[in-house]
């Protein structure tokens, strides 16, 4: 049987799917979801924001050059009186009493270049890199959650449609049996009570059929809202169960610990917290910097104003209004919080993986066991039908046998749905939901539609 997960060769836009109501496969549904999900759009925007933020501080350790122009009004008074001793002349008084105007424009280019900041700049740059990692991990987490949700809705609709078909087939058969019972009643072969029992059973089946139709409507609505698509055609990717054994639990645990997006988010937060400690400790280090200034307008300069000036400076904060020790302790507590959160998350991931793996394995077992139940129920129904035609069985015997077959068929499909939903969850927790797309290409059992 050709895999329903095989990528379509013909590229069809979402709009044409809606108009023509073409069949909808799981990969196409996933494409729609990724294109239209507001959650993913928000996560993508967050990633771009963090990337641009990192770009903005990539050259933070480089020079800063600025140009300033001002118009100055003011004056400087110089008042100097001093006796100067000269040879042969004795002591001569010298006096200087002048006022210098400072009026005029000034324009200068100023440059500063941090040489050593105690690791503050490096910490900020590294923290921005880890902030991108966190945003990417959050986007991955959202995509995995949406994939698991899509699997539940898509295959839930497949289950609902399958059960509706079973209920419809049973209703059709019971309608025929009711007609047969009414005929036999007229011929005196069965009593009125027996015929009425057949009719009551038919009515009960009719009610179950109506419930099944409502379940299809609800499941269709859920998938429609998730995909932002009002109309779509028949779902073409069927429920399935793997024939071969699953990969061992250890594989899934190791994969989850290495690739689970929630753990990646927490690890990125811990890395940022660690850089925050480095940044807080840098406040205790001296700040070494180079500086320079060049004045463009020299006409209005006073005697003491330089044409240009450059040098190297050191700034060491002796007292800060901000408690630097508390800042370091706060950063260390943030790191402790992240590490504790990671430990808790690791335990939660292990538990979730083990539960999903056990449920998936149990669903496989239930599906395989249901095969013999379905076979037995089908043969029993054939036997009861033959006995009813020969007058050896009552109509109630046939109805009961048909109900047993329906229950077995529904149980088989339910086991397949439990497998698919838990298998999808297993991949989502492990951070490998993309591998789920190829799952049906393995040796498998496809449930009848």
Q: State the total count of DSSP E strands.
A: 8
Average of the residue pLDDT scores: 86
Strand order of the largest sheet: 1-4-6-7
Q: Which residues form runs of ≥5 with pLDDT under 50?
A: 1-18
Series of secondary-structure elements, N-terminal to C-terminal: HHHEEEEHHEHHEEHHHE
Global shape: rod-shaped
**CATH architectural designation:** Up-down Bundle
What's the structural domain tally? Answer: 1
- In percent, how helical is the residue content? 55-70%
Main sheet makeup: 4 strands, antiparallel
Write down the CATH topology. Answer: Outer membrane efflux proteins (OEP)
Q: What's the CATH superfamily, by name?
A: Outer membrane efflux proteins (OEP)
Q: Provide the β-strand percentage band.
A: 15-25%
Work out the helix count: 10
Radius of gyration: 40 Å
CATH level 1 name = Mainly Alpha
Pfam family, one: OEP
Protein name: Transporter
GO molecular function, one term: porin activity
Keywords: Cell outer membrane, Membrane, Transmembrane, Transmembrane beta strand, Transport
Give descriptors for this structure.
single chain, 449 residues, alpha+beta, Outer membrane efflux proteins (OEP), four-stranded antiparallel β-sheet, two-stranded antiparallel sheet, 8 strands, 62% helix, 15% strand, rod-shaped, disordered N terminus, Transporter, efflux transmembrane transporter activity, transmembrane
Walk me through what this model shows.
This protein has 449 residues and is of the alpha+beta class. It has one domain (14-65, 119-286, 323-446): Outer membrane efflux proteins (OEP), CATH 1.20.1600.10. It is built from ten helices and eight strands. It has helices spanning 14-20, 26-36, 38-56, 120-186, 192-227, 249-259, 261-281, 324-389, 395-430, 433-436, and strands spanning 64-72, 75-86, 90-101, 104-116, 240-242, 287-295, 308-315, 444-446. The strands form three sheets. It has a four-stranded antiparallel sheet with strand order 1-4-6-7, with no helix packed on it. The protein has a two-stranded antiparallel ribbon with strand order 2-3. Strand 2 (75-86) and strand 3 form a beta hairpin. Helix 2 (26-36) crosses helix 4, helix 4 (120-186) packs antiparallel against helix 5 and helix 6 (249-259) runs antiparallel to helix 8. It is rod-shaped and about 160 Å long. Mean pLDDT is 86; it is low at 1-18. Keywords: Cell outer membrane, Membrane, Transmembrane, Transmembrane beta strand, Transport. Belongs to the outer membrane factor (OMF) (TC 1.B.17) family.
